[in-house]
Amino acid sequence: MDLSQYEAYLFDLDGVITPTAEVHMRAWAEMFNEFLAGLGDQPPYTDEDYFAHVDGKPRYDGVRDFLASRGITLDEGHPDDDGGMQTICGLGNRKNEAFNEIIARDGVDPYPGSRALIEELARREIPVAVVSSSKNAVPVLRAAQLDRYFPVVVDGKVALAHGLKGKPAPDTFRYAADLLGVAHEKAVVIEDALSGVAAGAAGGFGLVVAVDRGVGTQPLLDAGAELVVDDLERLMD
Predict the structure, then answer these.
(1) What kind and span of H or E run contains 210?
(2) Which one of 33, 38, 58, 68 is most buried, counting C-beta atoms within 10 A?
(3) Which residues are catalytic?
(4) DSSP structure string for 98-136
(5) 22-106 architecture in CATH?
(6) What is the rounded average pLDDT for all residues in the chain?
(7) How much is the pLDDT for 147?
(8) What ranges do the domains of the chain cover?
(9) pLDDT tens sequence across 113-141
């Protein structure tokens, strides 16, 4: 692929640049299974639940959509709710606490192929941005020692501050391209989640690339990916 045919690259973070999608999966599983065990009449939360209802979405949307799939209704609560509260926000905050504990304890290393692509784009002076539903994008980039490459980070905090709809809406990707001063059709979206791929496909971007970390090639293509790879280093072939 000729990297220079596009003017900017918009990266999702978890599962694309860093293997933190796995950390998110662990944190979601810990939180939901503890919650479900307290109800007594629900089967355990599974990886299939993660991919179907949670992956790539803003945190509270993931809580809301998973609970809806089980016919469970909770009060919305408030973003400041303590992690021990039985509300949508409380459960979401409990998951975030678990995620931060794992990152603080274990650290995070980027995927080697993703680091190589980012460094090559920097060498060519092609602008890049991170577009993530997570509110932890900046500390994760810092922990991975990649923050210096990304002058633009549009994460969950930025989306909330500017009233941007989360993935699968294309708003956050479009906003990142606008901040870089690049036309949407000249930018590449790189994602691993079905909701993120759908956001890229809906945004009028030049190319939507999916990296398959376990979702499967066909579902990613069905969601709107135009190219699916197993490692981002393939884009430099």
Answers:
(1) strand 207-211
(2) 58
(3) 12, 14
(4) HHHHHHHHH-----HHHHHHHHHHHHTT--EEEE-S-S-
(5) Orthogonal Bundle (1.10)
(6) 94
(7) 95
(8) 3-19+109-235, 22-106
(9) 999 999 999 999 999 999 999 888 998 99
